[in-house]
Design goal:
The structure is a homodimer. The N and C termini of chain A lie far apart (50 Å). In chain A, the strands form three sheets. The first copy, chain A, has a six-stranded parallel sheet with strand order 3-2-1-4-5-6, sandwiched between helices. Chain A has a five-stranded antiparallel sheet with strand order 7-8-13-10-11. A two-stranded antiparallel ribbon of chain A has the order 9-12. In chain A, strand 4, helix 4 and strand 5 form a beta-alpha-beta unit. The first copy, chain A, has nine helices and 13 strands. The model of chain A has no long low-confidence stretch (mean pLDDT 92). The first copy, chain A, is elongated. By secondary structure, chain A is of the alpha/beta class. The interface between A and B is large, with 51 and 51 residues. The structure holds adenosine-5'-triphosphate (2 copies). One adenosine-5'-triphosphate binds next to helix 1 of chain B.
């Protein structure tokens, strides 16, 4: 079974360490802060207080034996990069690193870190999109070219059967699910996944559509 | 057009302020750190250095006139909560707040904050899931009951037409897209969205499936 090391026990790092441990994986958690190490000690296989820029200390903690290292040292780009270089020298096959800025992210990527995460930036984009386009209830980019969007059923298809709405022929998009409004007496809205063409879409329902970004954008303009 | 206030210009807050401003929205950005205010001043309508727990200072900055306030003060739960209370007293209709712990999140929710975000926690869950279940290339929870999963085409459907694979009858799930492997000469894999039943699924392709979580879990066990 895979062994993990989490270096930097901020909110991101400690949560990764916790979830992996909960799932019975071996996790070495390190941080230079004693309180952070103590806080997680009973949840992981091994928790060590050390400065991760100290290669000798990392070796003593057994870091070179892990399959995956997650580096989440914030605030200090230099330390983050130094630690990543040490891990590469130690031969760690897979490194995931949290970036604290676009520049930091670019440096990490150039250093060959294939998974660079930007938690705050990604959430900010999600929140901002939601404020700018509240009609998009959910947007999933399936690929750079195709997306899945959930939105309230547009007025022009309310009362129609999916077959009648003819979305694919008219707009190039497919309805893959319908969320029927919360009817009286029911606790939560009911989902109709991969609905029959005879399904009627009512006011108050939302539809989940799949299509190319270009077609989705055109569709958006007419709703 | 809506007016926004962003209180706390850490990575999350400053990115929200930046994106909203880029989209031509009026943004008042405040922080107690002069350097953070200066860094964003030329990108937003108004950037003010102030302590957001000072109601008078917030009023002077015109915060009471915004439609939406985004509060992203980390490290200090007390300040975050105090600011949220002031904003509610000022009558701000919509408040979004970043939480730095589960407890912080629960307090904010109880205070009536309908959108509470946990950027680091959510990204940690995504990263951890990806490490624990690398075969799931992408997982989207459409609702508590249904998900969309992208995974490599399982061995038992390779070489078959979608029609022959009979996924819906046998497994209760629908293939909504197929990503054909990168063929020689092509720069990137090609997507087949809402594929015809005659589409053949080959080794190296990945499929995007939609179904109930229960059916997806059963399917996962046999792949
Ligand atoms: N050289 C180092 N060696 C070990 N741990 C370090 C080192 N430098 C920083 N850390 C630790 O990294 C952790 C994360 O850093 P910090 O809290 O600055 O980042 P953050 O990006 O705000 O974290 P998060 O957003 O995940 O909460 C801290 O617990 C800190 O003690
Ligand atoms: N009372 C306050 N008034 C105004 N700004 C404040 C106050 N307290 C903290 N801030 C600001 O809030 C910002 C975010 O705080 P901090 O960096 O601690 O949070 P964070 O959660 O690590 O942020 P992020 O993860 O978004 O980078 C900081 O720029 C800080 O100066």
């Amino acid at each position: 079974k895979k062994q993990f090391a989490v270096i930097g026990l901020g909110r991101f790092g400690s949560e990764v360490a916790r979830i992996l441990s909960e799932n019975k994986y071996s996790v070495i958690a390190v941080d230079r802060s004693e309180s952070k190490v103590k806080a997680i000690a009973d949840q992981v296989s091994l928790a060590v207080q050390l400065d991760a820029t100290d290669e000798k200390a990392l070796r003593e903690a057994g870091i070179q034996n892990v399959d995956v290292a997650i580096v989440s040292i914030g605030e200090n780009i230099e330390a983050s990069i130094l630690v990543v270089m040490i891990l590469k020298d130690l031969g760690i096959k897979k490194i995931i690193a949290k970036a604290i800025s676009e520049l930091h992210g670019r440096v990490l990527t150039q250093l060959g870190i294939r998974r660079v995460v930007h938690p705050e930036r990604d959430m900010a984009q999600k929140v901002a999109l939601n404020l700018i386009r509240p009609e998009i209830l959910e947007l999933i980019e399936l690929s750079p070219e195709f997306s899945i969007v959930e939105l309230p059923a547009p007025e022009f298809i309310q009362g129609k059967k999916i077959l009648e709405a003819n979305m694919r022929a008219l707009h190039g998009i497919t309805i893959i699910a319908v969320k029927h409004a919360n009817d009286t007496g029911r606790a939560s809205p009911s989902w109709n996944i991969n609905p029959y063409p005879s399904t009627v879409i009512n006011k108050g329902d939302s539809i989940v559509i799949l299509g190319s970004n270009r077609d989705l954008e055109k569709f958006r303009k007419i709703t």
